[in-house]
Hints:
The protein is mostly beta strands and 294 residues long. The chain is 11% helix and 31% strand.
Amino acid sequence: xxxxxxxxxxxxxxxxxxxxxxxxxxxxPGLAARCNxxxxxxxxxxxxxxxxxxxxxxxELRRVVLLDRMELNGEPPAGIFDTTSPADYTLINTKETTxxxxxxxxxxxxxxxxxxxxxxVLPDGSVVLPWSVRELGKDEPQxxxxxxxxxxxxxxxxxxxxxxxxxxxxxxxxxLGRHLAWTKKDGRCxxxxxxxxxxxxxxxxxxxxxxxxPNPADRDLKGNDSPGHPPCTIEVIAxxxxxxxxxxxxxxxxxxxxxxxxxxxxxLKLADSIRRTLPRAAAGExxxxxxxxx
Length: 294
């Protein structure tokens, strides 16, 4: 176990590669069980050392990650990404036969089964996020709860609703969810919600907590573990939208197709119209400014 880190601010490290690098220990609001430490070369701004400290069950902070060798534009060793199995191994699956599945987190409680999937951060900062909720022991199709939904309208009133997103460590910025589209795979309906921030963004944000609520409001969710955050979020540039977002929609669809009418242009236009309905815009203030596309 290493020593407990000192979080008192900036410290000079003249012994670190002779760079006189500066160690910075930024606070991480709401994440007291995890702390990151970084050292930068003050002359170039290049990262030269990084540490991750996590709280052990004993209550002590322990260093769990150390990165102390940084190489810029280095050439990886030949064959490092070769997936050919050794000669004495027998394959039980191949690239051709392995099922293509979108990574997700599944939460199964006493009465509900909730699946959270990776989200996609668009160039304007809005987020497309798929999720699904099923009641255990009930096999009735959910199609009727989705069929009449309108793009830009309310989310489906499932037993648990992911009504918004909040950037991790923040309390005053909320992304409000609206229906974008839905797909169905193996009898399970997936809501593809569009989440739009209610305040200005300087740059897109990619780390979120999920805001959930029961339907109806007095529903008892005791014993049901709901996801607290997406498995991950992927920042999408304009040229990748079809492959990443539409491809994911097709993957979670029985017919292998994405919903009609979905394109980057149509989703950005919808997000802009939603912004104009947010509380601050309705009060006569200027609507949030789009983050600059990358």
